[in-house]
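Budget justification aside, the reviewers requested a transparent look at the raw inputs and outputs of the sequence design task funded under Objective 1. We therefore reproduce one unedited record. The lines immediately below are the structure tokens for a 382-residue chain.
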């Protein structure tokens, strides 16, 4: 089987959809599927890495969306590059992530090859997204062979935007590349340095995410300021709130800002932390970063957003979103109770394993085979 994964987000910019597309591509390739990724920027056409072929579909530009800034390529040139790539690849299935994004995804759905599997990631819809859905719903729905969504919130958003004609939506939760985070955790257990984050006896609290209001880093800093005692708090990432976060944390030597860090450094940070905090206040359809922390052997404290509660499935300490006092209490409770941390770590490891990217790949293979029939059957892979 030959599958083209189409994404509207710049693959060089960190983000949830980008992580899912790259991880799914590697997992499918490991199962004997011929995989190509079509996305803005990234690598030159035809350059292969990890058994996955990449095709550059235009140049990305920052665009405000859903309380964040999305690196998308909503240009005719990007759409044309996408169609050329699909014509060259001649895939058995075109798997489009976020099909309503102008540029590569929308071009692939409306004008590209069939059959199309469309995956909806987004939770909540602003006025522009709803207007686009109303305008294009009939044409988009007519071209989709099978719709999928990463969570109930994403399903609800897709139905609200495209209407009842969307029909069946298969929910396939996001996944985590468990082995990468387990390897970082093994380095820590073996006493080897976990990058710059090895911390000794002082508790280490980690946050990873874009520095914008909905990700909640400000709430974490406010919560930490209510707590006494030694700890180290690493607020990794960058964004429009970085300067204000630094001002809020000024004078508290426990809080550090390493900036945007690589994927390997994220794994090292999560494996080194005693607690990972996910304090987001909205816009999260599924909390993959919680699963990454769990896979790294770290206890998780997270806000009660539906997407986070779904991802955690009982393996995290949950607090009321937007309340720094409740976050402070939850964080103190986990940091001060070794048995509770160990319990959360054990539950988290099991939860992460249940959401492995290999399982996600299996679920999508079933979706592909529903559309292409027996000719698309592939082996189990290595």
């Amino acid at each position: 089987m030959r599958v083209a994964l189409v994404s509207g987000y710049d693959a060089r910019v960190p983000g949830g959809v980008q992580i899912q597309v790259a991880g799914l591509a590697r997992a499918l390739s490991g199962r004997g599927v011929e995989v190509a990724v079509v996305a803005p920027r990234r690598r030159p056409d035809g350059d292969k890495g990890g058994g996955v072929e990449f095709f550059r579909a235009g140049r990305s530009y920052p665009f405000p969306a859903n309380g964040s800034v999305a690196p998308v390529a909503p240009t005719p040139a990007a759409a044309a590059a996408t169609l050329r790539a699909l014509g060259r690849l001649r895939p058995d299935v075109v798997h489009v992530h976020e099909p309503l994004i102008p540029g590569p995804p929308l071009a692939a759905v409306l004008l590209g090859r069939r059959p199309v599997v469309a995956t909806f990631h987004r939770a909540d819809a602003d006025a522009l997204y709803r207007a686009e859905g109303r305008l294009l719903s009939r044409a988009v729905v007519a071209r989709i062979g099978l719709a999928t969504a990463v969570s109930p919130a994403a399903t609800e958003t897709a139905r609200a935007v495209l209407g009842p004609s969307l029909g069946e939506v298969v929910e396939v939760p996001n996944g985590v590349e468990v082995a990468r985070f387990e390897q970082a955790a093994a380095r820590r257990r073996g006493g080897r340095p976990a990058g710059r984050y090895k911390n000794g006896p002082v508790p280490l609290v980690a946050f990873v995410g874009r520095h914008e209001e909905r990700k909640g880093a400000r709430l974490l800093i406010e919560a930490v300021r209510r707590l006494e005692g030694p700890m180290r708090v690493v607020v990794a990432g960058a964004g429009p709130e970085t300067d204000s976060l630094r001002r809020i944390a000024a004078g508290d030597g426990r809080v550090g800002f390493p900036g945007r860090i690589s994927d390997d450094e994220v794994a090292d940070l999560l494996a080194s932390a005693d607690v990972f905090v996910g304090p987001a206040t909205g816009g999260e359809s599924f909390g993959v970063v919680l699963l990454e922390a769990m896979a790294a052997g770290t206890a998780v404290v997270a806000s009660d957003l539906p997407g986070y509660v779904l991802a955690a499935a009982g393996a995290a300490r949950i607090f009321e979103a937007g309340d720094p006092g409740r976050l402070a209490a939850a964080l103190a409770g986990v940091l001060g109770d070794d048995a509770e941390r160990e319990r959360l770590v054990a539950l988290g490891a099991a939860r992460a394993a249940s959401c492995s990217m290999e399982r996600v790949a299996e679920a999508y293979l079933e979706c592909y085979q529903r559309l292409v029939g027996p000719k698309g059957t592939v082996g189990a892979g290595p």
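Residues 378-382 have pLDDT under 50 and may be disordered. The chain has two domains: 2-175+356-376, 178-354. Computational costs for records of this kind are itemized in the attached budget.
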